């Protein structure tokens, strides 16, 4: 059999494995439908979702101007400084409640939102996967219209991106995106804050993401729509981010996005090397297949050496040590992953203050 024939055969068997994975279909369909929405109504840029009665939804990073994003980050820095100094007197969320809907597991998102909101005087309510059952127990638009009557803000971690758009459309309180199959904007605000703390800037930097072109990547790309920096996604063929999202930046965004299939080359001169799990939540049954596909894409000591000594290592966590990154890199001198995790709370406080019109 020729090489091309062998490779075709391998692809066919991969396709069979993927077809057995129900989640892959859900995930890809979700992104595909979302791209269709983008083409049709620009809902993906937030344009098609009505704003809440008061304040702003936080659904995608680029729903905001660069100035607004910068203001959120500056607020985050101030509130972080106050909390770090032991000054607990700032209580802008006093008397406010936040409903938090989770259809997927979480540690950082749940705890950072709940703790951050409490520290600034508010009360957060955790609604886990068995409580609300989005799309199963009752219609998403009904959930939105009921929850916003009790709560000043709704935070949600959901599978389908359309569901968060629908929640926002029907909620008179601001809706904050705590991750969907498509994006994770709060994470990237925390990453931007971490970059500011270590590099002093976002603009003019080179951020190289090595791994799957997933929800984290889509939010990085959307940050590049507003800030002028170079974002490179080094991923295996077939695992590229959504092309419509890449086009959004490259056809008029502030920054520049490139796709590479050569991670060792891509990381050269990087200010940040970033990675995430190869199989996201809901894709775990593809983990073995992906381990084969992602050979050469592990962020290890060799890759950090190729990036150079000034490169930071970031990971949204949870990390699967020994798979997408090595233990040595997570624990190494270039790693700032735990500061990055802490910054989830501070960045989200900044986002919430702005979305609620309190900053
Ligand atoms: N990074 C992040 O969102 O972590 P969790 O899944 O633990 O919330
Ligand atoms: N891409 C990962 C991010 C986890 C914070 C996932 O969706 O599981």
From TrEMBL:
UniProt-recorded Gene Ontology molecular function terms: amino acid binding; ornithine carbamoyltransferase activity
SUPFAM superfamilies from the UniProt entry: Aspartate/ornithine carbamoyltransferase (SSF53671)
Enzyme class: transferase
UniProt domain Aspartate/ornithine carbamoyltransferase carbamoyl-P binding: residue ranges: 57-197
Signal peptide residue numbers: none
Keyword Iron-sulfur belongs to the record: no
Gene3D superfamilies to which the protein is assigned, alphabetical: Aspartate/ornithine carbamoyltransferase
Swiss-Prot/TrEMBL keywords: Transferase
EC id: 2.1.3.3
GO terms of biological process kind: citrulline biosynthetic process; L-arginine biosynthetic process via ornithine
Domain of life according to the entry: Eukaryota
Catalysed transformations (reactions): carbamoyl phosphate + L-ornithine = L-citrulline + phosphate + H(+)
Keyword Cell cycle among UniProt keywords: no
Protein family membership: Belongs to the aspartate/ornithine carbamoyltransferase superfamily. OTCase family.
HAMAP family with a match to the protein in the record: OTCase (MF_01109)
Cross-referenced NCBIfam families: orni_carb_tr, PRK00779.1
Protein name (Swiss-Prot/TrEMBL): ornithine carbamoyltransferase
Native source species: Coccomyxa subellipsoidea (strain C-169)
